[in-house]
Amino acid sequence: LSETHGQSKWPVVPNFAQCREAVTTLAEVHAYWWGRSADIAIGEPPIARHEDPDHLATFFSGFVDLVGEYLSRDRREIYERLLARVGPLVATRLEAGHATLRHTDSHFWNFLYPNDPSTDHCVIFDWPLWSTGLAASDLAYMIALHLYPEHRERFEAPLLDEYARALGECGVSHSLDDVWLDYRIGVIVGLLMPIMEFSWEIPPSDWMPKMEKAFGAFYDLDCEELLDG
Fold first, then answer.
1. Distance of alpha carbon 19 from the chain centroid
2. At what angle do helices 176-190 and 136-143 cross, to 10 degrees?
3. Which of 56, 77, 123, 221 is most enclosed, with most CB atoms within 10 A?
């Protein structure tokens, strides 16, 4: 696809039109498997445990020791509540029928953007971390963990509107309010990403910016209310 598609240079976020194309493509993938992800014949790869809070809890003390006082007492307490409560929170939404195939590494640079959108389609690639689960966790990873606050403030709501519209066009009945609720839960799940990458011995230079962006979205969207509720 190198002759027909391209992408921005990491970490420069694509322009808004391209971000919309990525969100639309993600919604189309989600819609195709919406409510029938159990029909996927191939078993989930072992790496799917990367969002398992019980598994990640075994790495939490080492994670805290590494970041030290950088992680405030307030944030440490949020992590402790998150590890204890996020599993049932996600399970409640999955029981409501919101499960689908997820990419789980759906940042903007895992998409190829058409040079001519009138003739070609945006393409998502790099699938080794795929899993099944809550659809909007892909969306939260894409937006909340990769856009800085000012950038997210401008892009977040229009991109969620686009996602809801694209789901509807694909025949999925999922209101914008539901998209926002699942997105906020996805932000909570996104806070697990730094612990997961720590467990893989990925350098902090990669996951500490994600942690800051995730906490920013967590506070802005009052996700603590969901965690405590």
1. 14
2. 60
3. 56
